[in-house]
Amino acid sequence: HLLVCVLFVSNGALCQCGGEREAHDSVATGDYFGEAIVTQWDSRQHSSECPTDAYGELEFAGAARKHSHFLRLSCDTSPQTVYTLMTARWGLPLPNLVVSVVGGEGNEKVKTWVRDVLRNGLVRAAQSTGAWILTGGLREGLGRCVGEAVRDHGAAAPAKLVNAQGSFPARYYVQNTSRDSYCLDNNCQAFLLVDDGTIGRRGGETVFRGRLEDYISHQRTGIWGSGSIEIPVLCMLISGDANMLERLDVSLGKATPWLVLAGSGSAADFISELLDNLSSVSLTSTSPPAEEGAEGLIASLRDMVRDKLQRYFPAEIELEKLVDRALSIYQKREFITVFHGEQEGSDDFDIVLLKALVRASKRVSSEANECTDELKLAVAWNRVDIAKTELFNGDIQWKYEDLEDSMTDALINNKPQFVRLFCENGLNILNYLTYRRLEGLYRSLSDSSLAYVLLQRRLSERLTAPLKSRKSARTGPPSARELNLFEVSRLLWDLLGDVCQPFYYKTLDLNPSTSTRKALRQVNKMLLGECKYRDQRCLSPWAALFIWAVLQNRCEMAVYFWEMAGESVLSALGGCKMLRELSKLESETESKLAMKELAQKFEDLAHDVFGECYQSSESRSFTLLIRKSPVWGGATCLQMATAADARKFFSHDGVQSLLSQIWWGDMERSTEVWKLLLTFFMPPLLYSDLISFKALEEDDNSVEVYHGRDTDSLDGNDATVYSLRPFIVSRWRQFWFSPVTSFLGNVLMYFLFLYLFAYVLLVDFKPPPPDGPSTLEVVLYFWVFTFVCEEIRQTFFVGSTFVLQRMRSYIEDVWNKCDLTAITLFILAVMFPWSYLVGRAVMAIDFMVFTLRLIHIFAVHKQLGPKIIIVGKMMKDVFFFLFFLAVWLLAYGVANQALLYAYDPRPDWIFRRVFYRPYLHIFGQIPIHEMDADKLVEIPCTNNATLVEAGAEPCMSTYANWLVVILLAIYLLFTNIVLVNLLIAMFSHTFSKVQEHSDTYWKFQRYNLIKEYHSRPCLAPPFIIISHLHLFIKRCFRQIPSVKSKHFVLELLGKKASCLDAWEAIQKENLLSAQNKRKRESDTVRIKSTSVKQDMSNPQHGLGFLPDGCASGNTSRARRPGDVLGSSPGMHKTI
C-alpha cells in the first residue's frame, strides 16, 4: 500500500505534508472546518492507505546495466510481506548477513579513509559472506560511496521480472537537480520507496527500516532456513547528525549490534568518545556513600555528556533530551563496537564484523559460547579462512557437541571446506551420522534439484500404496509422510540397476528379493509404528555422504567424501554410474554438462587409483577388481564399470591383463591359435608339450582370481581342487573349460551350422509331410532347438534375482535381439507353414539374420572389433540420411508421376513410379525412353479411363515434358551430389571419431565377449543340450548351487578384506599426494615464469605480490553479493 494525505493543513502555500494544494483531492482541500481546528498535521491521523500503483522494474535511461526492482509501500507495511517479496518473487539470494549503513546523508563530505573502508572492507566482506547492505538509495554522501564501491567490485546480482505476465520497465531519467534534491542511485539492485505521507522530507523510512532489520534478524540462514543461526543484522554508523542518537537508542533496545566508525563524523565521533570517557570515569571514581554520592556522580556524568553534545552538535536546542538518549545508549554499550579505521585499516574488516556480532550475541544469551557463536557466523559466511586463523589455530579444544550443528549447516548449504575442517578437528563422523540425520539431509534437498523431484515421485508412490489395515501412510504420523531411506533406496535402484543389491534394505528389515509392492506395504506398516532404525549409526557414513553429495551434483563435496570413503575404485565407478544416469534424466543443459564432467572426473579417479594399485601389486589389483563389496550391495569393480560404460577404466593394462588371464584359463597366453585348433580336433595332444599349461601349485592370490570362474562340468566339481584330481582329468579340464576353448568350439560349430542351413535351404528343403522333412532338415531343427535352450538359460538363469530384471537385461543387448529375431523367424517358417514357398522365403531371410550374427564373433579381434562399432554407429547415420532422402523421393516422385501420367489408379504402379524408380535414378538407372519426348518408344496405350482401370497401359503426357527434365536434373543434383556427399561426410566423421579411440572401444567390447563365453557351458550347440541336462540335474535334484550366476566374483571376509581395504587406501593416498605435489610444482613454475616476464617488462621496478583477494580480479572467486537496495527518501541495500 501507499499513503495519501486526506487533509490539507495549511503551511503557507503548501500542506504540512509537503505537497501542494493541487496535489490533494477535493475532499482533502474542501474540509475547511477540519482545517480550522487541526493545526498540526500527523501522518497516522491525516493520511490513508490505498493500493500501490508503483512497482515492477526500474530502467535507468542511459545506464548500461540490468533493471532494478522497485516498490512503493507504506511505512506501516508488514516487514514479512516485503521480505517474502524480495526473496521469493524478486529472486534475491537469502542473506548470511545484513549490514545497515546509516549516517552521512546530504552534502556531507565523506573522508578518504572511510571510502577505503567501504570499498576494500565492507563491500569485500559482503562479497565473501553473501551479505545484504542497506543504505539510503540516493546518489548523495555515504549512499553514493557504497553504490560506487559495489559497482567497482562488480557485485551486481541478476534481476528477475516482478510481474511475470510482462510489464514494461519504468524509465528513470537522471536530470540536473537542485542542491536540496537527489536522484536514485543506479547501482542499486532494488528500491523500497517507503511512503509516510510526506513529500520531500527525510527520515520517513526510519521506522520501517528498523522493523525490517528486526524481522530479518529473526530469520534463519541457509537453504530453506536450514542454517544453525539466525541471520545476523549489524548497523554501521558513519558520521551522522543528532537525530542518529534516537535511531541508535531504539535499535539498541531491540538488541541490534552496532559498529561505529570513530573519526568519520559528528555522531560516530561522539559515541566513540562517550564510551571511552564514561568508561574511564566509571573505573577511576570511587564509591561515594549512599545517595548523595550517587546523585553527584550522575550529575557529573550528565554535565560531561552535555559538554560533548554542545561541542559536536552546537545547533541543537533540546540538549537534555539528547543527554538522556546518550546515557541510555551508554547503558547498552555491550552492543556497540568502535572501529578506528584510520589506525586499524580495512584489510581485516570482515573479522571486525564477526567480533561485533559475537559480542552482541554473547550479551543476548549469557549461556552462549563465544567460540561457538563465532564458528556459526563463520560457517554462515562461508569464511573458512577466518575459522582456521581465529578458531582452529590450536588454542581451543573443540568438542563433538560444539561442532555438530555447524557440521549440519555446512553439509546442507554446500560448504565442503568447513566439512573437511570439522572432520580434522574433533568431529567423529561415526557418531555424527545416524540414519535419522541422513534422512534429514535428504529432506533438505533443494526443490529445484533433480534428485528431489525423483525422491518426491517415489514418496508419492509409497503414500498411495494400499495397506491391508484401514490406516494409511497419509493419515499416519508426520514422519510417515516424509522422505525416508526407502525412497532413497528405490532411487538408487533406479540409477544403479541390478548391479548391486538394494541399499538400506537390511536397515529397514526388508528382504532384497521382496517385490516392490510387498516392500511398500512393509515400509508403510513400519513407519506407522516406532522406527527404531533411525537412532542407529550409519554403518558406512562416508559412503552414504558420498552418495548424498553425488545425487546433488556437488563436485567438491563429493570428491572429499570419496577421498575419505573406502573402496576408492568402486566408489568412483559408482559415482560415475549414478551421474551418467542422472544426466540422462536432467533437462537443463548446464546441469547435464556438469553431471557428465563430474562423471568423467570420477572415472579418471578410478582409472588413476587402480593404476597405482596395479603398479604396487598385480595379484592384489586383480583381487580388487573381482572383490564383492558389502558397502555397494555386493557389486564388483568390473560389474560397476560395465554398467557405468567406463571405457577408459577398461582400457587400463591391469584390467586387460586380468581379462586375458581369465580368457586363456590355465593355458599360457602366448599359445598360438593353430595349436588350439589342432588340439581341438586331436584331444590326445593335450597330454603332450604342444600347449603349455600353468603349474598347479599357484600361490593363493592367483587361485583367488579364478574362484569365480564357472567350472560346472559333467562331474559337477569345481576347478579349485585341481591337486586332488588325476593328471588326465585335470589336464582335460584345464583345456576344455577355458573361455578361449569354449569360444573356439562355438565358432567352429556355428560355421558348421551355417553350412548345414545353407545346404538345406538350397538343396534339401522338402515340402511338408509326406514328402518331408529330410534327415538334414531334422538335424537343423534340433540344432536350432539347442539355440533356444541356451537363450532360455541366458534369460532366466543368469544375472539378477528378479526375473523381470533378468529379462530386461537380456533384451537390452543388441545381439540378444538378433538371436530372438532369428529364432522367431525360424519358428514362423517351420511351425506355421501356410505354404511351402512362404516358409522357404522366411527361411531365406532367417539365414541372413543368422549369418549377420557372425559379426559378434569378430569382436574378439583387435582390428575387426572397432570396425563393428563403426558399422553400428554408421547405421544411425544412414537413418538420418534416409529421412532427408525420403523427403526428396516423395517430392520428386509425386511431381514426376503427375506430370507424366494424367490418370493411372493402379496402386502397384503408383508405388513403383513414386518411390522405386526415383530411388533407382540415384544409381543411374534412368528410363530416358519413358521420360524424354524426343526418345519415346511406340507402345500400345490408351487414354480411356475405363480401360486404364481395367489394366491397360495409360499414355504418357508430353505437355510438360520440359519440366520433367528440369525436375530430374534438380533431383539428381541434390541426391547424388549433396545428400550422398553428406552421407560420406557423416561416415568419415564417425570413422575418425571411433578410430581415434579404437583401442579403448575394443577393450571395453572385449570384456563383454569374455564374460559371455566365460559363463557358457563348455560344449557348443548342438552338444550343449548335454550340458543343459547336466545342469538341470545338478540344480533340481542334487541341489548344487550355481557358480555360473556370479561372474568374476570373489567374496573376502575378515582379515583379508581389511588388509585389501587398507592397501587400497594407501595407494589412493599415494596418488593424491603425487597429484598435489605436481600441482604445487606447476604453481611454482607458473609464478617463476610470471616473475621473469614481469622483470623483463619492468626492469626498473622491483617485483611485489598482493595478498590473495586484494586485486579486483580476485573478487570473482568470492560469492557475488547483490546490488544496492534503496528506498526513497533514504534507504538502499547491497546484496
Describe the 3D structure:
- By secondary structure, the protein is mainly α.
- 55% of the residues lie in helices and 6% in strands.
- The protein contains 44 helices and 15 strands.
- The strands form 4 sheets. Strands 13-12-11-7-8-15 form a 6-stranded mixed β-sheet, sandwiched between helices. Strands 9-5-6-10-14 form a 5-stranded mixed β-sheet. It has a two-stranded antiparallel ribbon with strand order 1-4.
- Strand 2 and strand 3 (14-15) form a beta hairpin.
- It starts with a strand and ends with a strand.
- Mean pLDDT is 78; it is low at 32-36, 155-167, 283-291, 697-724 and 1096-1135.
What secondary-structure arrangement, pairings included, does this model have?
Elements: E1 2-5, E2 10-11, E3 14-15, H1 26-30, H2 32-37, E4 47-50, E5 55-60, E6 68-74, H3 79-89, E7 97-102, H4 112-129, E8 131-136, H5 141-152, E9 170-172, E10 188-195, H6 206-216, E11 233-237, H7 243-253, E12 258-261, H8 266-284, H9 290-312, H10 319-331, E13 336-339, H11 341-344, H12 349-364, H13 370-381, H14 384-391, H15 400-412, H16 416-423, H17 429-432, H18 435-443, H19 450-463, H20 485-496, H21 516-527, H22 541-551, H23 555-564, H24 568-585, H25 589-616, H26 618-626, H27 637-643, H28 647-650, H29 653-664, H30 673-681, H31 700-705, H32 727-736, H33 739-762, H34 775-796, H35 803-812, H36 814-831, H37 836-852, H38 864-900, H39 907-921, H40 945-950, H41 961-996, H42 998-1015, H43 1024-1036, H44 1055-1097, E14 1124-1126, E15 1131-1134
Parallel strand pairs: 5-9, 6-10, 7-8, 7-11, 10-14, 11-12, 12-13
Antiparallel strand pairs: 1-4, 2-3, 5-6, 8-15
